[in-house]
Structure to design on (469 residues):
């Protein structure tokens, strides 16, 4: 028995050493480290340190769901385009809200040469996705000023919070859009537009908040996977609906002298 | 949610007690002995917990196993602790007798269903969603695995147990497979759930 025991012990040890990383404890285990933590904050730091010009160009994608290969093609294409200031992913990076899908999604975006920001989508919130998003990307609602333009990222996934009346947080949105010295115009980005999943009680207030100070030059969202530019508010704020990554089309928005120019680019 | 977790802990204790009672009661033949589990298992990883404890029965001349596991992932290994239960069926297709004391079962196929406790891991779509808003349920996943087992008669003479086994299993689950399909850029190793454990037989 002694020899057999030693052989088994030896084989087991070799097996364990060679297989490290394959051991999986739970589909809901969140143990992000390093470049998979505080991603939005890190990228914002990078963005605000870059040399700024008079034109801002943003490449938009979103709704990754289970199209990870397509996300890789998107990243490859963006890396060949000149003058992109940053990338915005409009949410649904993790189809089942699984920590592993968050890791996959970020593994592709990490190859981008320009900074990127990722918004929270409804799919990202399933299971313990809420915790995973906080851990990997940070706050659901956040804003920053880049070249005199305030970018406001808003969690509009009301249904995931059971229509609790606080999502989207309209008080916060109004505060952000309240005119101040540090910005002239604003861009509001969110995952889910008014419709199924967006709190119907907050829809009117949402449009009113956007129009309150006549300073929102564009709203951008995902969720619907197709592209269009439409004007749902009384004062005709352009709403840009971003392609789902599976269409292998991205939406490029140039902002020059407070005007927006929307183009689409295949990848 | 904490109540469910609490329940799981009690259940685990019950499993252990049942098993201890079972091994001690070997010499007697009781009316309800057929209810006693045929084995107890302690498993590391395999997607159903950092450590999982299970009990089960064997059927069809020990060719089919049904095991109930309680698995736990402590805080520190994940940002929040996770409690779950799983039901696992294993078909042991090949049995090789190495010696009087050793048996090798190199080809075991398994199927499992795994439920994580917590309100966010729902099984039925919560009522505030429109019907069929999400097609899967975060609280109940099924998966498959293959594995092998080395059955020995260690401890057989010193304890009432008939033997002890070590086993390993490699598998994946439906949600991982659904993510991998159509995505050649996702490494196959990323969807693998590897685990190993020991089994103590009655």
């Amino acid at each position: 028995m002694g020899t057999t025991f030693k052989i088994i012990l030896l084989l087991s040890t070799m097996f364990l050493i060679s297989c490290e990383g394959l051991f999986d404890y739970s589909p809901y285990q969140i143990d992000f480290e390093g470049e998979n933590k505080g991603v939005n904050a890190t990228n914002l730091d990078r963005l605000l340190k870059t040399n700024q010009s008079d034109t801002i160009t943003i490449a938009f994608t979103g709704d990754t769901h289970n199209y990870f290969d397509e996300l890789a093609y998107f990243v490859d294409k963006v890396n060949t385009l000149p003058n992109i200031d940053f990338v915005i992913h409009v949410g649904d990076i993790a189809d089942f809200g699984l920590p592993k899908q968050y890791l996959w999604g970020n593994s592709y975006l990490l190859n981008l040469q320009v900074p990127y920001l990722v918004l929270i989508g409804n799919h990202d919130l399933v299971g313990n996705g809420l915790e995973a998003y906080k851990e990997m990307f940070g706050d659901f609602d956040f804003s920053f000023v880049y070249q005199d333009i305030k970018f406001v990222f808003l969690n509009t996934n009301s249904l995931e919070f059971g229509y609790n009346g606080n999502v989207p947080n309209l008080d916060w949105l109004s505060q952000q859009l309240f005119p101040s010295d540090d910005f002239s115009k604003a861009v509001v980005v969110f995952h889910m537009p008014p419709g199924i999943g967006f709190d119907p009680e907050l829809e009117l207030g949402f449009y009113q908040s956007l129009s309150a100070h006549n300073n929102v030059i564009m709203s951008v969202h995902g969720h619907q996977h197709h592209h269009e530019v439409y004007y749902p508010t009384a004062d005709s704020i352009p709403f840009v609906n971003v392609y789902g990554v599976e269409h292998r089309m991205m939406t490029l928005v140039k902002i020059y002298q407070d005007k927006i120019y929307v183009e689409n680019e295949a990848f | 949610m904490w109540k469910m977790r609490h329940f799981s802990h009690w259940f685990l204790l019950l499993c252990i007690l049942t098993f201890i009672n079972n091994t001690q009661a070997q010499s007697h033949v009781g009316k309800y002995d057929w209810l006693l589990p045929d084995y107890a298992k302690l498993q590391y990883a395999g997607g159903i917990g950092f450590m999982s404890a299970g009990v089960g029965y064997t059927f069809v001349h020990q060719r089919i196993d049904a095991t109930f596991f309680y698995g736990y992932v402590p805080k520190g290994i994940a940002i929040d602790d996770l409690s779950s239960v799983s039901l696992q069926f294993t078909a042991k297709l090949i049995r090789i007798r190495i010696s009087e004391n050793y048996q090798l079962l190199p080809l075991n196929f398994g199927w499992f269903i795994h439920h994580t406790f917590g309100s966010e891991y729902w099984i039925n779509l919560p009522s505030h969603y429109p019907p069929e808003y999400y097609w899967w349920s975060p609280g109940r996943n099924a998966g498959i695995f293959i594995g092998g087992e080395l059955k020995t008669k260690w401890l057989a003479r010193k304890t009432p147990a008939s033997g002890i086994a070590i086993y390993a299993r490699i598998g994946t689950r439906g949600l991982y497979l659904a993510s991998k399909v159509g995505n050649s850029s996702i490494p196959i190793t990323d969807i693998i759930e590897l685990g190993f454990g020991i089994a103590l037989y009655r």
Summary: The helical segments of chain B are 2-24, 174-180.
